[in-house]
Specification:
The chain is α/β, with parallel strands linked by helices. It has helices spanning 12-23, 67-77, 91-94, 98-118, 155-174, 196-208, 229-239, 258-276, 324-330, 338-361, and strands at residues 3-7, 27-32, 57-61, 81-84, 126-132, 177-183, 186-187, 215-217, 223-224, 227-228, 248-250, 256-257, 304-306. The structure holds NADPH dihydro-nicotinamide-adenine-dinucleotide phosphate and guanosine-5'-diphosphate-rhamnose. GO terms for molecular function: GDP-mannose 4,6-dehydratase activity; NADP+ binding.
Length: 372
């Protein structure tokens, strides 16, 4: 039985990757952080009672800032494959915690690689690094592929640039099977609530259910190449099944604006609301339909206001990936379209909003967290 170790197992990708590897018959080990409240919601469905024999999903407390902890876990687990998905992954937040972001996302990668090397495991372990399209930042060519020059635009992007190069360096210096997946944005119903797609699907669902008054947005003109996390974790595994390590761009090759994503979500929700028999007028909404870029949002659907507090000190305006190498060399093709993904996300968030609204109507008012 192959063993995998996943940092960031409690995150969006970590949870889908754990499911995927368990289905493939792996013994999966994950590193979770100690938190003051439960933080394993995304993997609770694959959690196994620690009292059960022959478990194949095992969580370890740990942190990418703690080298001795990483060394001990690696020694204990003796993994065949290590997936380094752990990170302070929010670009806007990285401007507020730049040093921590550098420590976890940049030096954390070095700590893991160095622990593997010091334990003499560098010829045995295959290492996957969660690199990012944020490396391209202020893009130098369109679309971006494996040879496009990097120009990161945030402390997050710069930290991930260090991680990218240290992975290349350990591959070249020590012959490690180590590779970078340069992944473009990928989302799902498990996406963190403050990334833009989830903020939209959750926010509009809440507004529709009367739980919030308005959706406040930042730069609605930003362009992204969005895929589904489930498709992208498959590719993370595929990258480690080759004879030789290589870096790959993982993207759909299709680009849309944030505004477009708002429009799809509203349209998805509009259908659902009419189906439920509660007229869109009851949502009591709209306003930010601006200029000739106006989306097909209907007046009365949903209030969307632009709030400059969500602008970033330096913005990545446009990202569009060229996944030709992944398609040709590995036969990887994304199966879920961005529209299908949006529909899935809206459906999940609407269910949650409906539960909250039901409880509220029946006197059990639960606060809805609107931090974004
Ligand atoms: P998430 O933010 O959902 O998950 C990040 C994970 O890292 C969480 O499990 C988090 O733990 C953990 N983590 C945070 N800080 C530390 C730390 N100090 N030590 C150990 N673990 C830590 O991210 P995604 O799942 O979306 O992304 C996975 C990886 O892929 C990240 O490295 C991200 O930067 C990168 N990436 C993501 C893309 C995307 O579009 N999703 C695109 C390209 C790259 P906790 O749950 O406790 O917070
Ligand atoms: P990104 O994702 O920065 O690309 O990083 P995010 O969803 O946060 O932003 C995408 C674009 O939307 C614009 N935007 C807003 N973003 C947020 N979060 N909130 C808003 O209200 C808002 N309004 C507009 C942003 O300015 C941006 O242009 C994600 C993360 O998963 C990284 O870890 C990963 O490396 C990259 O994707 C690829």
């Amino acid at each position: 039985m192959k063993k995998a170790l996943i940092t960031g197992v409690t995150g969006q990708d970590g949870s889908y990757l754990a499911e995927f590897l368990l289905e493939k018959g792996y013994e999966v080990h994950g590193i979770k952080r100690r938190a003051s409240s439960f933080n394993t919601q995304r993997v609770d469905h694959v959690y196994q009672d620690p009292h059960v024999e022959n478990k194949n999903f095992i969580l370890h407390y740990g942190d990418l800032t703690d080298a001795s902890n990483l060394t001990r876990i690696l020694q204990e687990v003796q993994p065949d494959e290590v997936y380094n998905l752990g990170a302070q992954s929010h670009v806007a937040v990285s401007f507020e915690v730049p040093e921590y972001t550098a420590d976890v996302d940049g030096i954390g990668t070095l700590r893991l690689l160095e622990a593997i090397r010091l334990l003499g495991m560098e010829k045995k372990v295959k290492f996957y690094q969660a690199s990012t399209s944020e490396l391209f930042g202020k893009v130098q060519e369109i679309p971006q592929n494996e040879s496009t020059p990097f120009y990161p635009r945030s402390p997050y992007g710069v930290a991930k640039l260090y991680a990218y190069w240290i992975v290349v360096n350990y591959r070249e210096s020590y012959g490690m099977y180590a590779c970078n997946g340069i992944l473009f944005n990928h989302e799902s119903p498990r996406r963190g609530e403050t990334f833009v797609t989830r903020k939209i699907t959750r926010g509009i669902s809440n507004v529709a259910q009367g739980l919030e008054k308005c959706l406040y947005m930042g730069n609605m003109d930003a362009l992204r190449d969005w895929g589904h996390s489930r498709d992208y974790v498959r590719m993370q595994w595929m990258m480690l099944q080759q004879d030789a390590p290589e870096d790959f761009v993982i993207a759909t090759g299709v680009q849309h604006s944030v505004r477009q994503f708002v429009e799809w979500s509203a349209n998805e929700l509009g259908v659902t609301l009419r189906f439920e028999g509660s007229g869109v007028e009851e949502i009591g909404i709209v306003d930010a339909i601006e200029g000739d870029k106006a989306p097909a949002l209907k007046l009365g659907d949903v209030v969307v206001r632009v709030d400059p507090r969500y602008f970033r000190p330096a913005e990545v305006e446009t990202l569009l990936g060229d996944p030709t190498k992944a398609k040709e060399n590995l036969g990887w093709i994304p199966e879920i379209t961005v529209q299908e993904m949006c529909a899935e996300m809206v459906a999940e968030d609407l269910k949650v909003a409906q539960r909250h609204a039901f409880l509220k109507e029946n006197g059990y008012d639960m606060p809805v967290c609107i931090e974004n």
